[in-house]
Amino acid sequence: MPLPETMFCAQQIKIPPELPDILKQFTKAAIRTQPHDVLQWAAAYFSALSKGKPLPVKKRIEMPLATEKTDAGLTPGLLKILHEQVQTGRMVSVAELKEKWKHLCLPEEQLKAILQLDDFSEEVEWMKVLALGCSVLGRSLLSSMKHACEILTRDPEGGAARIPFETFSFLYSYLASIDGEIPEEKTEAFLHRIKEQALLANYGFPQYY
Fold first, then answer.
1. Which end of the chain is less packed: N or C, by CB atoms within 10 Å?
2. Are both 117 and 182 inside the same structural domain?
C-alpha cells in the first residue's frame, strides 16, 4: 500500500539563509567555466567549496582552444585553475593530477600526451607540467612563454604579465631542452639579453621579466 503524500505548509519549509547566495555563485561559476560535464564539474566544485580549497572556476569566459576532433581541450583558463589548485606543493602525484584533470572535464588522452613529453615517475614537478601545458597551447617557444607569464603573473589582467626572472629562466630553459633543437649557448644568450632588459625596465631591480 503506497504511503500517503506528506503535505507541507510554507511555515514548515525552512530554506537555509546562505543557500540562495551559494546557488547564485555556483551558477555564475558554471557560466564562466563552461564545463563539458556539468555534473562532474559540480561535484568537484562543491567538494572544493566544502573543504575551503581553490575552486575549479575560470576568472572569465574564454573561447576553448580545442581542435576540431574533440569538443573539449586545455585552455589558458583551465591551466590557470590547475596551477591555483596544485601550486602549494612543488611536487604533485600523477594520480592527484589525473583527478584534478578529470574534475575539469579535460580529455585523459591530452594529459597522457603531455606527461609522455618527459620521463616522469609517479610524482611530477608541477612547474614542468605547467610548462608543457603552455607548449600545448603555444605554437612556438615564445608563444608558450607568453601563456606561462599570463598564467603566473600577479599583475592585473591586461597588465605587463610580469613574473620573477628566475621562474621565466627555469621555464624557458626547460622547454628549450625538451625541444632538443635549440643549442644551450643560444638559450643562455637569450636569457642574458632578457635579464638585461628586465634590469632596464625595472630601474635596476631584476625581479621580473
1. N
2. no
